[in-house]
Amino acid sequence: MKNEAFKNRFKELLDCGGSNFVTMHHNEEILNFQKRITSAQYHFCINTTYDMFEFTTRDERFRTPLTEVKDFVIKALWGELGNVPVSEDDEIEVKFLHFDEFCDRTDIWHWFEWYFNITLGDYFKQ
Predict the structure, then answer these.
(1) Chain centroid, CA 31 distance in Å
(2) Of 120, 118, 87, which is closest to residue 105 (Cα–Cα)?
(3) What is the pTM assigned to this prediction?
(4) What is the DSSP letter of 79?
């Protein structure tokens, strides 16, 4: 039940618009990012080494093992990437996570595969 509440709240935050995700810190195992919605900021942290995903707001904190919500998180972030405008040259036109404007979209796809240890083609066939 805890994970359902987590998923529902995370989806609400994604669905309510606001600016794209902006990375605060990134290395091979930790990705910290935030999303601003109106005047509030929401902070997210994925840690693959410690199998942890959490997000915090001013009033709440959700923390759960990444393995329990991994599919949900991948699909949510993939959905957010789908909202990022892309040029005719396949470059993103705004910053997304730790990827700068004008980054090639395929570089982001490769990052998804590396970071979450998946193959996108196989993953989305399921």
Answers:
(1) 9
(2) 87
(3) 0.70
(4) H
